[in-house]
Every structure is written in C-alpha cells, then in structure tokens.
Design a protein that fits this description.
Helices cover about 20% and strands about 40% of the residues. A hairpin with a 2-residue loop joins strand 23 and strand 24. About 20% of the residues are buried. Strands 7, 16, 17, 18, 19, 20, 21, 25 and 26 form a nine-stranded antiparallel β-sheet that branches. The chain has a four-stranded antiparallel β-sheet with strand order 5-24-23-22, covered by helices on one side. Strands 8-15-13-10 form a four-stranded antiparallel β-sheet, with no helix packed on it.
Length: about 425
C-alpha cells in the first residue's frame, strides 16, 4: 500500500511539471519583437485555470507618420495569427537629403484676392516706330547696293541700301537737274561776290548785300545736297534705322515711280501684342491688371513685367463686321517674339473674390486626376486630390482639396510623386504571433 502511494505522488508531480512547462511555452510565444521606430506596451492578463489569454490593453507608440491599431482580443493557448490593422494616411517619406539634391520648395496655402482671367490668342505686330518704309524719291531704275540682299539681313542706320538711276530718263533726268542746280549755285555765288565789292564802295546798301548772301547760301545747300545724295545722276537711299530688312518690294534693276515703296525695315525692339476678346468682357476691361504671354517657340510664360510691357489701350466700340474688342499691349522684344506670329495670352482683371492659387509646378497629373503633396512633417507628405479652376499661365486656382494654412510642395512635386512608388513597407504589416 505504501508503494502505491509513492507511485501516485510521483505521477502527480510529473503532471504538474508538464502543465507549468506548457504555460511558460505559451507565454514565450507572446513575446513580441518590434522595430525600433515603434514602441509597444502589452498588458497580458492570463487565466491559468482555463488557459485563455485576455489581451485587453495593448498600448503601441509609433512615429507621427503612421498609426497602428492592434487587436489582441482573442489569444488561445495555441499559437494563433496575430491581427494588425494599419491605418495609413497616404504617408510618403521624402527625406531632407533628397530635398537638398533638387530644386525643392514648400509654400503655405493662403486665401487671397483672385483675378478674373481672360484666356485667348493674340498676334504680335510691329509698333508704329519699329518699322520704316523706304520709298523712291524719283523715277528711275533701282540698283541694290548689295546684289545678294535678302529679307532678314541686318542693316545699320545711314547704310546705303539702293540707288535709283534716272540719268537716261527722257523726263526728269537727274543729270539735267544737277546741271541746273550747279548753274544756279555758280550764278548766286558770283552775284554775292560782286555785291560784296559794291557794298565796300557804298554803291549798294547792306540790305541788298544780305539778300544776295541769302540766295547764295540756299543755292550752295541745294548743290551740296545734289553732290552728296545724287552722284552721277543717281539717287542714294540709306537705312533710316538700325534693324533688319523685313520686306523687299521690288526686283533689282526694275523701273519704279517716284513715291513707290521699295523696302521695309524693321527694328523689332518694341512690339505690340494685340488680342481680340468678346464684347461680354467690356465692363471689366477697365480693371485690367496685367497679362501673361505664352509663346509657342519655347513654351514659357512671360509676364508684362518680364517684357517691360504695358497696356496701351482697349477698344471702346465694335461694329457688325468685327464684334470683338481689341486690346493692345506694348512689350520689349526679348529675342523670342516674332512679329506676325501668334501667342497665347492670359489677361488678368482685378476681382473681389477670394480663393486659393497655387503655382502650376505644385500640381501633378495622374491619369487625368490632379493632385498636390501636403507636408505633414519635415520629411513626410500626403498626396491630396484637388479640383482645378482658372489659370493665369503661371498659377492655378484650387476649388477643392486643400485649405488655407496647409503647406504644399511648390517645387519638386514630381520627385515626391516618384518617391511614393518606392516607399518602404511597414515592418509590422502581416506579422504572425
């Protein structure tokens, strides 16, 4: 009997040791290993009598860029799956070292007075002072000074461009006219010298001598002008401005009449930009503030300030044949503007409406959807879908998606967009307990 009690005691001891060992194994399973970026405090209440674990309070501390909610409501004695619910707010990490490598800028969103924008096309035309037309001062044969003269060729003020030869013309020959002017000059000169000696002898009055001197000086001026500008029966025509040849209206060695246009010179230093707008805009044209011009040559947008420009005028009336209202701006040519070409113009008019305007560089398109990147931390950003309004060529109105006071990437938004595709996975996603 005594041996039976000893054997029973040993059996009970072995069973107790097995239960304790199993309990320790289960507890070890619930020892979570987390990354350094997140701090987890787990409160595990174990009921050893039933071996059910109640994890009612798991306190997890994470960085500001991600929030983790862990549900440990049911842990059985067997190693079951540990479920994590990760609620990400579209966080995109773009570090300070990455920002320093590019043209990166973040601006604060503000509500500001909006401008009404009239968007239309406009034509570049020469200003009144930038073009000069050279006309024939006499009838005759045109001879270009440079036989290879072409449109676009640069010229300097005072440069001889062509001459008109009418020496062999039956009527109005310059050679005959030159002889007449020379004869008149020689006669006036001799008359003046003769009256000078008579005045010294008191034979004529000083008034008669003064009249003779006047006639002599007039004849001398005509003669010198003939010698200088009409040598050997030719009329010399010089460039009146420095610029380039815009048009050549006659052929070399052709006959022209006096007053006929021969050549057009263009300086193109100051240009006009003319836009035609619908008459419905007439009430607000008096409030025009500025304009932005987008050229087809380089695709850039230039403001009036960039081109040292100003508003010249806008039309006050319309007619049946052309119901549009002309608006004319004067600008300085930056070397990109070509007279005769067309540009896109954004005319801004002052308005009392308030709203949000962002640089076009802040807005990124993704398959027809427009978005911006809002800064949530120094190196963390959130993609935000927005609704666009009007644009003035440089900035665009945002109707919906962001609020004043938020900070948005204005330069480098494309780089932040690329960074979202290479973002690292959350280290806690889908781990099993």
């Amino acid at each position: 009997m005594k041996k039976i009690l000893i054997i029973a005691t040993i059996i009970v001891g072995l069973i107790s040791y097995s239960c304790v060992n199993r309990q320790q194994t289960t507890d070890n399973v619930h020892n979570h290993q987390h990354s350094e970026s997140c701090s987890h405090n787990h409160d595990h209440d174990h009921d050893h009598s039933t071996h059910n674990h109640d994890h009612s309070a798991h306190s997890h501390e994470h960085s500001a860029t991600c929030n983790h909610d862990h549900d440990h409501s049911a842990h059985s004695s067997q190693p079951a799956a540990h479920s994590h619910d990760h609620n990400h707010e579209g966080g995109i990490t773009f570090g300070l070292d990455q920002q320093a490598k590019i043209d990166f800028e973040v601006v604060e969103v503000v509500s500001e007075p909006l401008s009404q924008v009239i968007r239309t096309s406009a034509q570049i035309v020469p200003s009144q002072e930038s073009e000069k037309i050279l006309t024939a001062t006499t009838s005759g044969i045109v001879n270009f000074e440079d036989k290879d003269i072409v449109q676009g060729q640069d010229v300097k003020a005072g440069q001889v461009l062509f001459s008109i030869d009418n020496d062999n013309m039956a009527d109005g020959s310059l050679a005959v006219r030159r002889q007449e002017i020379e004869a008149e000059y020689q006669k006036a000169k001799a008359d003046y010298e003769r009256k000078q000696s008579l005045a010294e002898d008191k034979i004529i009055s000083q008034s008669e001598l003064l009249d003779a001197k006047t006639e002599y000086l007039k004849a001398e001026k005509h003669y010198q002008n003939m010698i200088q500008n009409y040598p050997e029966g030719k009329t010399l025509h010089k460039a009146s401005i420095s610029g380039s040849i815009k048009d050549i209206l006659v052929s070399n060695n052709s006959y022209v009449e006096a007053g006929q246009p021969i050549m057009t010179l263009a300086q193109n230093d100051r240009l006009y930009i003319r836009a035609d707008v619908q008459s419905k805009y007439y009430p607000v044209l008096k409030n025009i503030k500025t304009a932005n011009i987008k050229t087809a040559n380089d695709g850039k947008v230039y403001s009036l300030n960039d081109l040292s420009g100003r508003l010249l005028s806008y039309g006050k009336t319309t007619d049946v044949s052309n119901p549009l209202i002309p608006i004319t701006f004067e600008v300085k040519n930056n070397g990109i503007l070509i007279p005769g070409s067309f540009v896109e113009i954004f005319i801004t008019v002052e308005s009392e409406q308030m709203g949000i305007m962002l640089p076009n560089t802040a807005i990124v398109e993704e398959m027809g959807i427009y978005c911006v990147f809002v800064q949530t931390c120094t190196d963390s950003f959130e993609k935000r879908i927005v609704t666009k309004g009007v644009t003035d060529g440089n900035n665009t109105q945002i109707l919906k998606g962001i609020e004043a006071g938020e900070r948005v990437v204005s330069k480098g938004a494309v780089n932040v967009k690329l960074a979202q595709g290479s973002a690292a996975l959350d280290p806690h996603a889908g781990h099993v307990h």
